[in-house]
Fold this sequence. Notes:
The complex is a heterodimer. By secondary structure, chain A is mostly helical. Chain A has one domain. Chain A is globular, with a radius of gyration of 17 Å. Chain A is built from six helices and no strands. In chain A, 81% of the residues lie in helices and 0% in strands. Chain B has a domain at 2-95. Helix content of chain B is 87%, strand content 0%. In chain B, α1 (2-38) crosses α2 (43-63), α2 packs parallel to α5 and α5 (82-95) crosses α7.
Amino acid sequence: MEMLLPYLKAFAVGGAFCALGQVFIDYTKLTPARILVAYVVAGVVLGGLGIYQPIIDFAGAGATVPLTGFGALLAKGTREALGEKGLLGALTGGFTASAAGIAAAIFFGLIAALLFRSGDKS
Amino acid sequence: MTKKASPNTKSWRNIPLAFLIGGLICTLGQGLTEFYRSQGLPKDEASTWASVSLVFLSALLTGMKVYDNIAKYGGAGTLVPITGFANAVVSPAMEFKSEGFVLGLGAKMFVIAGPVIVYGITAAVIYGLILFFMGAF
Lengths: 122, 137
């Protein structure tokens, strides 16, 4: 049971972030693109205020996998880079911390787009 | 009236489904993180590798047109996780490949990812400036 606990927490918290997103889709006029932008910016704010890290400590991937986690990572990278490089860190930190995720999305995205055809919708 | 009522009647299904599918994607992320940790990686790197793996899986499943079928049921459950971000990159890249590799695939890839990066990085820079000036005074 003890071994399952991190998975249950990840499921519950990650699920809650997604359910909230669905509430926005169903009850507001927010489009999916706006929700993604809002989640990332909310993650930066919550991460910057120090509210998000406790959620990550509790839920692990349940907090890092939703896009709010991506935002919190941007804030964390900025804070760390600021400590190392001063003001320049305010510019380098966000991209440095998110580089792996963004580069992976671009690289795998390009490969997938080259290998597969979209078709059938037209 | 009907406009207001129609989404509400769907929500009793949409919201639990988003919870379930989004929750499962995060659970998979947790499994990946623990796998990478068991390979001796520190917490942060294991978490980054898990994200990269999810991005890879999402790109593959989007290419195979599996992800969009899951998204029909998952709604925000397939949008909010990082797999949704990857899907938002791959999907327009595939669709607009026919318009060329530069202004089609290369540009349209960022139709949704672009704004996410623009506002995410801007928020991070503002946060950095606030921290810097708070420390300076």
